[in-house]
Amino acid sequence: MATATPQSLRIFYSLTLLLSSATYAAVSRAGAAAKFDNLSVHELIISSAHRQQPPHPSSHHINAAKRSANILSLKLYRRHSAAGKSNSGHRHRVTDLILRDHRRIAALLHRLSPYYRTDDFGSGVVPGLAQGSGEYFVRVGVGSPPKQQFMVVDSGSDLIWVQCQPCGQCYPQPDPIFDPALSASFSGVPCSSPVCALLSSGHSDSAASCSSGRCRYQVSYGDGSYTRGTLALETLTFDDAVVNNVAMGCGHRNRGLFVGAAGILGLGWGPLSFVGQLGGLAGGVFAYCLPGDGASGGLVFGRSAAVPEGAVWVPLLRNARAPSFYYVGLAGLGVGGERLAVAEEEFQMTEDGDGGTVMDTGTAVTRLPAAAYSALRDGYVAAAAGLPRAPGVSIFDTCYALAGYGSVRVPTVAFYFSGGAELTLPARNFLIPVDNGGTFCFAFAPSSSELAIIGNIQQEGIQITVDSANGFLGFGPTTC
Question: What is the pTM of this model?
Answer without folding.
Answer: 0.80
